[in-house]
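Structure tokens please, single chain.
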Amino acid sequence: MEFIIHIFKLYPNLISDLVQGVVYIGSAILFFNAIWLIYQAFRHARLIHNEQLQAQAHKESQLDDPLMLVVVKTLFSARKEHQGSPYPLSFLMDATHQLVENLYHTRYINRITMITNLLPPMGFIGTIFGMIMIFLAKGDPNSDLNTTGLGAALFTTLVALSCFVILEVFKKSLINLATSRIERALASQASLAFHGDALSQAMKPPETSETNIPSVDHSPEAAAAP
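Here you go.
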């Protein structure tokens, strides 16, 4: 322990630079990894027009399908599978909403959340290291340990928390965007289903009511009767 304290006192600037470098590099790796995931999430939730949705609704799902197309294909498959069942369309739409939202969160949001949760501890590592150096200064305000430790504690925490706030803002925007895209895709399918049902009802032939027509007896006995 005395040897470690001696090293700290002998090379305070070098050790501070090493610790801050580790914190900064680690935070940068986490931050840019999250930025890449955010870019992919925004691209996955891009807007798709209704004509494209209807043209590809019956096709097989692909891994790189946009979010709105995943919604349409999932709902189309659910309606096809449960055709003739007592499940209403609203139930299938709610189930599709929850399923696609969970898939999106698992693929992007949960991973971004894990990275953002690692950033504050990275900053706290620098904070703890800086506090250790301040304590080793033993109350000497002019000591290099004191000033170096205070700088390490403040700057590492500032960098980590700044990255954390930026990623949290992007994550909240992604959640709102994904919800909006899912609801828009479901609304287009609900409107199409409503118009399709109305069209089928209009094209159905009218039902003819059976009228009781009296039968005429053409037998010889009936003809001979007065």
